[in-house]
Amino acid sequence: MHAFKYHRPSSVNDAAALAKGEARLLAGGQTLVQAMKLRLSSPSDIIDLGSIRDLAGIKASGSEVTVGAMSRHADVANSADVKRSIPALAALAGTIGDRQVRAMGTLGGSLANNDPAADYSAAVLGLGATVVTDRRKISADEFFKGLYETALQPGEIITAVSFPVPKRAAYMKFKNQASRFAIVGVFVAETSGGVRVAVTGAGPCVFRQKDMEKALATRFAPDSVAGVKQKADGLNTDLHASAEYRAHLVTVMARRAVEAALK
Asked: Residue 120, Cα to own-chain centre: how many angstroms?
């Protein structure tokens, strides 16, 4: 690990003032610290967001749930407000990593990193959430750009995410048994704006499965997606699964997600 300067700002404005050049924001450290240990990342400064109280906390209204960017996965999984308003989101958070990861990892850190197999990205895109930063609001459809790439500008800080409360929703994933990352995960939601189906783990970035959305808009039932085939073109192939296998899993996980949403 290379030498760096450590900062612990008490406000978002102070953090933003420090987030320049080769400085990096620390929101949980589940990815950044490991990359630094392997010398794959060598930031000049580390800006720890853990002391900024305004970035944590969960608030629920009748139509949406707002989760602070520094809310831990365990906070979301155990929140009575989330369980009541969007139980699928609480269940998803409870499947992320292991107990230590859930105790340290944060919503904002996960989204800013945009790992292609992350779980939260499926919930954000599947629910049509809004990512709030210190500069603007970004819709889920505009936030995720590609492999580890988002719409965030240099130094821009995620402060919260607003999740619309759906009529019903569920998330199902086929997980890597070691890391618990999604080899394929599918989040299905019937929202006030229509049906949304978000797929993570299968490709370089989370994406919407529009054919399944159309089928479920006509009839929200497992059989509606059972015959919808995901193309393997452009999907990931690695030591865990081929692109063809991942394409097959998209349909399987989507069907299971619809079944769970109807319970």
From this structure: 2
Across 122-150, average pLDDT:
98
Nearest partner of 27 among 207, 160, 148, judged by Cα: 160
Which position has the token pair 């979301």?
Answer: 76
The average pLDDT across 46-73 equals: 96
> For residue 62, what pLDDT is reported?
86
Angle 206-73-119 from CA coordinates, rounded to 5°: 15
Q: How far apart are CA 196 and CA 212, in angstroms?
A: 8
List of domains in the chain: 1-51 (3.30.43.10), 168-261 (3.30.390.50)
The residue type found at 15 is A
Tell which residue, 256, 213, 249, 215, has the closest CA to residue 230.
249
Q: What is the mean pLDDT of residues 17-28?
A: 94
Is residue 50 helix, strand or coil?
A: coil
Threshold 0.85, pTM exceeds: yes
